[in-house]
Amino acid sequence: MDLNRFSKQVLAMQNRFSTLLQGTEPIKGLTPQLSSTFVMEMGWALEELQVAQEELQQKNMGLAEALEASVHERKRYEDLFYLAPEPYLITTLEGTIQQANRAAAELLGIPEQFIVGKPLSLYIREEDRQCFRSELIRRQERDCFHEWEIGLTCRDGRSLDVACITRINRDRTNKAVSIHWVLRDLTERKRIALLQQSPINSSEQRTIFQENRPLLSYHLGELIPLPQGTLWYVVQGLVKLTTLNHQGQEILMGLIGLGSPFGKELTSLGIYEATACSSVKLVGFTHAEIAASPDLTQLLLTGISYRLHQTEALLALSGERQLATRLYQLLHVLKNEVGTPVDEGICLNIRLTHEELAMACGTTRVTITRLLKQLQDQKKITFNEKRQIILIKNLVPSNPRNL
Fold this sequence. Notes:
Elements: H1 3-22, H2 32-83, E1 88-91, E2 97-100, H3 102-108, H4 112-115, H5 129-141, E3 148-153, E4 159-170, E5 176-185, H6 187-197, H7 205-212, E6 216-218, E7 223-224, E8 230-236, E9 239-244, E10 250-256, E11 261-262, E12 273-276, E13 280-286, H8 287-292, H9 294-318, H10 323-338, E14 339-341, E15 345-348, H11 354-361, H12 365-377, E16 381-383, E17 389-392
Antiparallel strand pairs: 1-2, 1-5, 3-4, 4-5, 6-13, 7-12, 8-11, 8-13, 9-10, 9-12, 14-15, 15-17, 16-17
């Protein structure tokens, strides 16, 4: 019913009735007694219509308020769906994505604006697709709430194992109309289980790392992020750890090579940066993974112990007054980290700039250039074709003060 139209009709009837009441002659065709009775009954009927109109208006206002409240409630639940930490999906019965929250888009590696309309089967691992289709049909025939596992291949190439919980959404006739999905990434849980089952030793650690977790690569000079709760482990290359003093000058805090860990968890400094000094490959471990594997804990403890020894060497270096001795000690610290035996002696397999050496020694680039030239003239060091420093055998200055 159109309430506005009905209200206008009632108002028009009231106006006509008022005009009728103003007439002094009886209504044509009616006796005075019948005319009076007709007017009285018409008045009652109009009053009932007015009451009905007011009741309809009140109900209409109530419906409008309920509609507005339901819109707000729907928006609230949509926000909860979108911001939920677990990946949620709504698909058709065939598996085409109709809705997805932010966590689901991140899990699948698809921008949020492009995820709707994509078949979920597109991201199912090829060997799992037949099982996926069969399970979809089975769950439409009867509701199942237990988890089932499938393999996903994300858009960025990652391969994940996920646990799925599905619920069939049905209409009033109990006909299935859509599927609600909850996805849970099992990758970390399976890594932890593997670490608990597979003891790690120095001879096989590289193989286990490469097979069971991604290697993250960083290029020379690239800053390495230090996320909270993650410990990085160096598989290849050298990482420079630095902070800043009150004058804004960079201070060397450590040189992290193969087999050593680093991260936010191993420092109390507010300003702390990690920079790749060469081509670097890293793997990351979470607190849960470390706690789950005593062998991994022992492996990381060995690396931390080695870092402690290096930190002591750097502290001793910073306390040395003679710049020549300080440079000599720094070269030996580098030798332990990245040194490789060659015919002439020990080659430092990274190319450090004079500015970086000066920063580590607490002096100027010009002074480092002069000291390196003197060491080269005295046949203490040499350079290969890549301009990498080679410490010539038996590099022990008889008197560093003469440099």
